[in-house]
Amino acid sequence: LQKELLKYKQEARNLQGIKDISPQDALQQRLIQQDASVLQLKQELLRANMDKEELHNQNVDLQRKLEERNRLLAEYKKELCQKDRHLQQHQTKLDEMLRQLSEASYQQVDLERELEHKEALLAHCMKREAEE
């Protein structure tokens, strides 16, 4: 009986020890899990903040590039307008020169006709003079 009693007491102590340790172990396990979760959340937050900062930097860079391209585009438009004005001026001069050339051609044709007519009259007069 004494042996059995010792055996049951030992078993009771073991059970009591397990019972006493069990909530403490469970609490410690929970704390460890919570710490791991907090650490994981902190890492995710850090990654998210880094990603956010990187996106912000990319956005700033893209804004800068956009402003530069807009500036270049404005310069190109200005140059294009100037070239269009020059082209229009040259086109106007060319049209005027073509008109003058056309008038000169008509005058040349008129003068050539007049010359032919006068040459014919001169030839006719010389012929009549020769006959007289």
TrEMBL record:
Bilayer-crossing residues are none
Q: Which InterPro entries match?
A: Dsh/Dvl-rel
Q: Does the keyword Transport apply?
A: no
Q: Which example biological process does GO assign this protein?
A: canonical Wnt signaling pathway
Report the superkingdom from the record: Eukaryota
Query: What are the UniProt keywords, alphabetically?
Result: Coiled coil
One GO CC annotation, please? cytosol
Which residues does UniProt call coiled coil? 38-114
Q: What PANTHER family has UniProt attached to this entry?
A: DIXIN, SEGMENT POLARITY PROTEIN DISHEVELLED
Task: State the name under which the record lists this protein.
Answer: DIXC1 protein
What is the phylogenetic placement of the source species in the record? Eukaryota, Metazoa, Chordata, Craniata, Vertebrata
